[in-house]
Design brief:
- There is one protein chain.
- This protein is of the alpha/beta class.
- Helices cover 37% and strands 17% of the residues.
- Strands 11-16-17-9-18-19 form a 6-stranded mixed sheet, with helices on both faces.
Length: 602
């Protein structure tokens, strides 16, 4: 293609469709058929029109460039609509206002329109007031009306759907909410509970899957699954009222809801956190960015610091868009981000961002490969008599490239079926039954177990199976200590939850000296049971005792209460936030009347 003339390239891109009589070679000789060749642009447009699922769209997307429409500037509105102005702004500009800004603006609209349509404007504004108020109560005041729904998080989308459900005034409907309070400040949890009560009052039923003790405490009936995770769970261990749960020994959540048990930080030999005055503090100064005002903030070194505030208050901008890139730039000798005026690293030499993004991009990444356990297992199996007799090296035991991998699925453990007009379907490989290995691998055994046998085990089960392998044993011990003992070694890492991914990323850091290390966590307690929050807190304490500084963006009151230092942002979201309302110890925040977080800490 590179060697074609411009005229020839134009034919490939835009040329007319041409029918050709062609012969296709087959095993039985050949087949003749008439085939129509379309130009490149028509082929992409045709594929795009037929794309019905994410995989099909991804295949086409590499041929596309998406830009803002120059005619409407992304408003989606025609010129005639955009020519109608109220107080100097058109419908597109009004749609770009956040809900906070919009609520204030629409109240003025009846007085800004011609007198003959003012009564109609008042009716419209009254109709808008209630749904906007609902969305604000749910912590979505920072959203604008033109925000594409595809850019919303699962939690944001679920809350928008909740607000719409109440407005529809349904009755006799069963609503199932999957962790509706995920990533929500306690103040916004109140808004979710108010909507749930409204749905019930209208004659609906609501089932909520959640860990938040305030949500569970508001429930009429509790169904608890457990007692543990993975193979240790899957049973109903209690069902009944919340009061009953607090008195039943089998219930693990009951004591937390009743307040008789709570998450506690157990200090090591060095105490809870650092001596702030002696160790110093990270210092950051920024100018305004987005809705966040100019800030000056100190983060104590060698301690656990929580950054708090309602949704949209500026926590992510402060930590992930300012502090982390500024520190990395300073350590690399690069220019600071334009909005960062100054940063003092205070002895920090490396920055580890432990977020909830999935590990790996496909099923080839597993718990065993990511943790490094499979590397030692491959070497151990290569030392067995059967492997040496067959001339098999450690590389042969790789399910990605080794000779022992399943030839049918190429070591993925699954087969993708192209179901023509339906989305692709992934099914377990019929040859290896998901083990990823061919038949020969099953015949090579160590202590009576094959490598596929061990990969099918949970972390806790495999700890016994790898006896004699010091490094693998230590790695599995670490994973178990992180509360991941129920994960299967062969489990694909992209399928892990955000909390599981965060803890798996931490595995390689445990046991190392952490002097000069800053660990930044973005809402690490999302989707965690209070027992798991306790495990996480113990892990953070171990990092601090090894010399690390830990910073968490967090809404969980238990973790905030156990922090050494709290930076509370707000007071609201969007333009109502972006300032540091209070900073100090958790008791300082609880005593601060201006802090919304403090109110719930009290």
């Amino acid at each position: 293609f590179r060697d074609l003339s411009d005229a020839e390239k134009a034919i490939v891109y835009e040329g007319p469709a041409e029918k050709r009589h062609i012969v296709v070679a087959t095993k039985t000789g050949g087949a003749e058929l008439d085939f129509t060749y379309f130009n490149a642009v028509a082929t992409v447009e045709n594929a795009l029109s037929k794309a019905k699922d994410e995989k099909a769209l991804a295949r086409v997307e590499k041929y596309l460039i998406t830009r803002t429409c120059p005619a409407c500037d992304g408003t989606r509105l025609g010129e005639r609509v955009r020519s109608t102005l109220i107080e100097g702004i058109d419908l597109g500009q009004a749609s770009r206002l956040t809900l906070t800004e919009l609520r204030e603006w629409v109240q003025r609209v009846p007085g800004l329109v011609p007198e003959e349509v003012a009564p109609m404007a008042r009716v419209i504004v009254d109709e808008m007031t209630e749904p906007m108020q609902r969305l604000v109560e749910l912590g979505l005041s920072y959203l604008s009306l033109d925000r594409a729904s595809s850019t919303l998080s699962n939690g944001e989308r679920q809350r928008v759907q909740l607000a719409r459900a109440v407005r529809n005034q349904t009755t006799g409907v069963l609503y199932v909410l999957d962790e509706p309070t995920i990533g929500l400040h306690p103040a916004n949890v109140d808004g979710v509970l108010a909507i749930i009560r409204q749905l019930i009052a209208d004659g609906n039923s609501v089932v909520v899957v959640d860990h938040d003790t305030r949500v569970l405490g508001a429930a009429d009936h509790l169904i608890e699954i457990g007692p543990g995770a993975g193979a240790d769970g899957g049973r109903v261990i209690f069902q009944g009222s919340i009061d009953e749960a607090s008195h039943v020994p089998a219930s693990r959540i009951g004591p937390y809801v009743a307040g008789s048990r709570r998450v506690e930080r157990v200090a090591g030999e060095s105490g809870r956190g650092a001596d702030v005055d002696r160790r110093g503090a990270l210092h950051l100064e920024t100018s305004q960015i987005h809705t966040v005002q100019p800030l000056s903030v100190d983060i104590p070194v060698g301690s656990l610091t929580a950054v708090t505030g309602v949704s949209g208050s500026g926590k992510t901008t402060l930590v992930l868009e300012s502090l982390v890139p500024a520190l990395r730039a300073r350590l690399a000798g690069d220019p600071l981000p334009t909005h960062v005026r100054d940063v003092d690293a205070a002895g920090i030499t490396r920055v580890n961002l432990i977020d909830a993004t999935p590990i790996g991009v496909n099923v080839r990444s597993t718990v065993a490969t990511y943790s490094g356990v499979l590397d030692e297992l491959r070497r151990a199996f290569a030392r067995t008599e059967e492997a040496q007799a067959a001339g098999l090296k450690p590389g042969a035991f790789s399910y990605n490239t080794g000779s022992l991998r399943c030839p049918t699925c190429d070591g993925t453990g699954q087969i993708t079926l192209d179901v023509q007009f339906l989305p692709d379907v992934d099914i377990e490989c019929t040859e290896c039954r998901g083990s990823r290995y061919g038949a020969q691998a099953a015949s090579i055994r160590r202590d009576g177990l094959s490598l596929p046998d061990i990969l099918a085990m949970s972390v806790d089960e495999a700890r016994v199976a790898v006896r004699g392998l010091k490094k693998a044993g230590t790695l599995l011990e670490t994973l178990s200590g992180l509360g991941l003992g129920y994960l299967t070694l062969g489990e694909a890492t992209p399928a892990l939850s955000g909390g599981e991914a965060q803890r798996l990323k931490l595995a390689s850091e445990m046991g190392r000296r952490q002097d000069g290390a800053l660990f930044v966590f973005d809402e690490p307690t999302i989707g965690l049971h209070p027992d798991d929050v306790q495990v996480l807190l113990d892990v953070l304490q171990r990092l601090i005792e090894r010399g690390a500084t830990v910073l968490v963006i967090e809404h969980d009151l238990d973790l905030i209460r156990c922090a050494d230092w709290v930076i509370d942002m707000g007071p609201g979201g969007g333009i109502e936030g972006g300032r540091i309302v209070a900073q100090g110890t958790p008791s300082d925040i609880a005593a601060n009347e201006a802090s919304v977080t403090g109110r719930y800490l009290r």
